[in-house]
Design a protein that fits this description.
single chain, 470 residues, mainly alpha, Serine Threonine Protein Phosphatase 5, Tetratricopeptide repeat, two-stranded antiparallel ribbon, 19 helices, globular
Length: 470
Amino acid sequence: MKTMVTEMKKQILFLLIPAFLFVSCGKDFTSLSPKSQRNVASFYKSESDFRTAVNGAYDALQLNGTYGKNFVLMLEMRADNTENGGGASGLAASLEAIDKFNIVTTAEEIEQTWSDSYKGINRCNRIIDNIDNADFDQNKRDQYKGEALFIRSLLYYDMAVIFGNIPLKTDVTSTPNDKVNQVSADQIYSQIVGDLQTAIGLLPATYSGDNIGRATSWAAKSLLGKVQLTMGSKTDAATTLQDVVNNGPYSLLSDYANLWGPSNENNAESVFEVQFKAGGIGEGSAYTDMFTPLGTVGGVGGGNAPQQVTTDIHNSFENGDERFSVSINDTAATSTGWWVPKYASTPFGPLDAGNNWYVMRYADVLLMLAEAVGEPNGYQYINQVRDRAGLGPVSAAEPGTYAEKLLHERRVEFAFEGQRWPDLLRFGMAKQIMAAQLGTSQDQVHLLYPIPQREIDVAPDQMQQNSEFQ
């Protein structure tokens, strides 16, 4: 499997160059600016053309503004598992602002996240707009369209969680005067639901050979369940996720430690990962440098979004939880020296490791299903995850509410995986928990990030800032 995935990553790398030429040129003043029309009419014809374009869409998930760095900051450092370990001044000042809810509307991180996310969305839109008119094998056309719908849905999900009310763009941005259709997060989620339902019918259930790591129908169904939970549609989510559990190809690995490291990627528990490959070819990940002292840039983070483990998450693990030593190395005398073994590896160079990023894995499906069905039936899914961690079962007999027990289980199972902030939002606990963590009032805890000011300035009559920043 390792060789197969390596070959897929090579394909993405070498086919990426023409994808950039055709779908990523544009003005810098707004992420919704028109893309270059050069050779578009002649490019989107053959299967090879569309495979190149789809690989370019996958590449958008590696960008610094998405899972390459900023989604990790905005969905992990924002919560109570990690904090900025790079100081509060100089280059680290903007990271401190994310950590302490002081981010400004002109911050580079939010501008880059906005730009890179819409870059990926526009790549997907171009595929979706053109593929029905292409003339090659229908099954391949279905697959490529399904992959584009999945990637677009994933980017829109993260953007809606981060920014809330954002522009919904489902066709290619072609002129500077395209209307900016800013809609509510609920409308974004509704669009995602429809897109994923379509993608499920188009995507294959599994892949083999060089294609392992691409989005499957089961990945689309798992993401659909997450979006349905986010919308509060627990009955729909239960139906969706029960199908994944009953009929999907996934299982929990017997040893939590075997989930981690470049040699364990795309395993039986993996639903969808963002693929990376080290080697000085521009396809490596930064997670070893961000989370451990084992990278090549010097210390945890080394100036690159250092993720310092909080005392609070350290103390949240139960005695005997086998996930603790895999999640936190606490051999240092103080918390400033603790780090995250999950992302240990030997990078080829600075910010160039082979660690993939889990977007979803089967434990997430089980715990989402527990959330969807509620108690008492949900305990069976929580306890499957606990059993793998070497812990005994929980039930209604233990102190605390069902939601508290489930949120705790999600916290320790997915520590440092970018799940904590969306979980706090979905459970309605973000203000309470983060105010206590930071020693501030709940009024100071923003549930959304500000929309970049440059986007407001470009279209002031069509874009409105989030109310928390007006």
